[in-house]
Amino acid sequence: MLSCVDVRTGASLWSVPTPRWTGNLAVHSDTVVTGGWRGYTPMTGLDLADGSARWTTQSAVTSVRTVAWAGGVLTGSGREAVLLDPSDGSDLARWRLPDPLAGPDAKAYVPVDAERVVAICEGSSLVTLGIDADEPTRLGSYDPFRAVGRIRGSVWMLRSGRGLLAVDPADGTSTWSVEEDRRIVADPLPYGDGVLVGDANGGIRLLGLDGRTVEGCSLPGRRLDALAAADDGGLFFAAKGTFGAFSFGSEARLSTTSAAGA
Q1: If you average pLDDT over residues 75-84, what whole number do you get?
Q2: 26: which of 4, 75, 96, 215 is 20 to 30 A away, CA to CA?
Q3: Model's pTM, two decimal places?
């Protein structure tokens, strides 16, 4: 079942049945594109207004995790990257990659801007491709990483051996890195002129764009699991059994809600 809810009230706007094992979901403009996870189901384009089907592939297809980008929805598998037209499911563009895309459960694409995207491929390699670019170009192969994203013009990788590495999506060269003996929490967040990173022991640090610590603080006695930005410039955090808000200032302000009471 796929459901659409009003984010302001939580009221259900529509619900539609989906085939078993339907996975992958990307929203572009007024269309929701679903399906293709592990080759179990067809891909389908649904009208965002009411959930009605606009198109469906004739048979099951295999797709990596999809993402909306450059006027379409990026999909693909193996060495093929495909940009679908969300209105009818046709191909807008297709690329042959030098390396196979990452597996079905891993993030496969990191949009850089309206014209370029970085593909995450097997062997911890990154490949850049674009609408007006020539052939896809391998940026490099890196130490194994368990999370990847984009921040302040760089593509960051959370390395499996702990620590962060950020690279220039134009040529793959390192822009900054963080060596760490504690598990870093994904995802790093832009904050002021730097980047905020948290670790599993409750530490939160503000890094400059050279990767050096500018200042830091800690959430005493809390095992940090996730960080997210709040609209007021503060932070939300998730810890074991706890969800809370945190803000920086001359006197740090911290409020929490236990999972049981949320």
Answers
A1: 97
A2: 96
A3: 0.84
